[in-house]
């Protein structure tokens, strides 16, 4: 639930609650899921019968509070809009889990559970020693750090830490992932004793991945990787396709010389060759309910959690940075600030890379969640299914559900009219609605899980 309200916000919340249009305003906010930064629209829509020209329904924002209609912003970042990020995380959960357990609604058979699949974590190399919490010893600085110590992940010696290398690695991480997937095909084929052309006819691998920033500000990837038959998840893999073969191929692909990205020397910057770090973790994914830690639901939940986060977890800003003094106003930590300053310093040396434009992401410019084409359903498909469901609800409420789509002409005119919740009381109302909706859905999900239907 939201924190305790300050007197100004509480007073404005009472004003909003006592307004004559409060009921409709609350309904609009609830329809956005409690979005923290809704888009405001002005306009109208008319439904007409094509044959007779009769008006079946007319809607205008003139009768709405403030003459505006609010729609959800759709931002995936939890730091910008917890409500829309929660929806995005739910969609990510479903497309990851559908590729692990199957989903009849997405035309993915449950037999996909029998395919070899692993949960792999590919990390960044070292750019210098940082404060950490070893399992059986103190940090190199001689201190046993608390789990939430602010110095964790920061450089032991900032003067020797390779901040330029760190942001350049982040910037090339997407290209390094592509090199890895290309090499993985070759490694799978080699272990199966077939050519790459034959591999396409017998099997294919699919993946769904998410990026995460470590405390030191370096990007790494968590990925579900699965072996299928030639036509994807609904075709069985060949007999030689095993979890062990897939695991061995992943290890070989990450360490192969081909799986690297070279950056040429420029002025005071040396030539660099980036590879994955030594901390590679590959674990088989077990079926739900067998007592394993790496289960289908656990993996899908883990991936969904990080799909709504970005570099702001390191203390940087969640938007593009105008000038360096902006970092002082937002109290950006020193280690993160040095990474951002490295982007500023390197930007003119690599003009085609636009490092300063991506300084708020510590150089990373790739997609935070992505998948191969045949892994499972897509986020677009999930969103369209939700939109179709809501459209059907609305049509039923308006009495238009019996009308054939080809017989109805829809005319509309919409204009952007702003965004957000200008009154602080309205923001508090949106946060409360979001928390209530989330609690209700989590309670329903837990009930389904206990019944074995989730």
UniProtKB/TrEMBL annotation:
InterPro entries: RepSA, RepSA_streptomyces. It holds the Pfam family RepSA. This is Replication initiation protein. It comes from Streptomyces olivoverticillatus.
């Amino acid at each position: 639930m939201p924190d305790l309200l300050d007197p100004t916000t509480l007073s404005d919340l009472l004003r909003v609650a006592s307004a004559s249009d409060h009921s409709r305003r609350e309904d609009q906010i609830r329809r956005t899921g409690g979005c923290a930064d809704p888009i405001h629209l002005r306009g109208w829509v008319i439904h007409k019968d094509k044959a007779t020209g009769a008006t079946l329904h007319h809607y205008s924002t003139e009768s709405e509070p403030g003459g505006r209609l609010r729609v959800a912003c759709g931002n995936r970042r939890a730091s910008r809009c917890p409500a829309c990020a929660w929806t995005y995380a739910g969609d990510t959960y479903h497309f990851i889990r559908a590729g692990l357990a199957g989903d009849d609604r997405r035309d993915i058979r449950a037999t996909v559970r029998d395919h070899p699949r692993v949960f792999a974590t590919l990390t960044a190399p070292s750019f210098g020693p940082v404060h950490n919490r070893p399992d059986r010893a103190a940090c190199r600085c001689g201190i046993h750090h608390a789990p939430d110590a602010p110095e964790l992940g920061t450089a032991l010696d900032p003067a020797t830490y390779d901040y330029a290398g760190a942001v350049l690695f982040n910037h090339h991480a997407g290209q390094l992932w592509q090199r890895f997937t290309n090499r993985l095909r070759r490694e799978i084929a080699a272990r199966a004793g077939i050519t790459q052309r034959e591999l396409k006819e017998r099997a294919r691998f699919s993946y769904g991945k998410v990026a995460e920033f470590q405390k030191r500000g370096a990007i790494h990837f968590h990925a579900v990787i699965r072996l299928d038959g030639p036509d994807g998840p609904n075709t069985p893999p060949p007999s030689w396709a095993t979890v062990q073969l897939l695991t061995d191929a992943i290890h070989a692909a990450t360490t192969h010389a081909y799986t690297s990205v070279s950056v040429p020397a420029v002025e005071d910057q040396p030539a660099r060759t980036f590879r994955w770090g030594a901390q590679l973790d590959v674990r088989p994914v077990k079926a739900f309910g067998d007592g394993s830690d790496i289960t289908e639901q656990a993996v899908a939940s883990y991936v969904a959690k990080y799909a709504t986060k970005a570099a702001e977890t390191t203390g940087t800003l969640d938007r593009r940075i105008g000038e360096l003094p902006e970092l002082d106003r937002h109290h950006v930590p020193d280690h993160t600030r040095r990474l951002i300053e490295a982007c500023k310093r390197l930007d003119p040396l690599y003009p085609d890379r636009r490092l300063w434009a991506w300084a708020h992401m510590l150089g990373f410019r790739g997609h935070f969640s992505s998948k191969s084409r045949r892994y499972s359903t897509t986020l677009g498909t999930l969103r369209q299914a939700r939109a179709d469901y809501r459209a059907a609800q609305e049509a039923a409420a308006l009495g238009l559900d019996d009308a054939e789509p080809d017989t109805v002409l829809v005319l509309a005119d919409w204009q952007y009219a702003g965004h957000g919740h200008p009154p602080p009381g309205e923001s508090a109302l949106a946060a409360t609605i979001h928390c209530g909706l989330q609690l209700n859905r989590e309670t329903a999900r837990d009930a389904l899980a206990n019944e074995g239907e989730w």
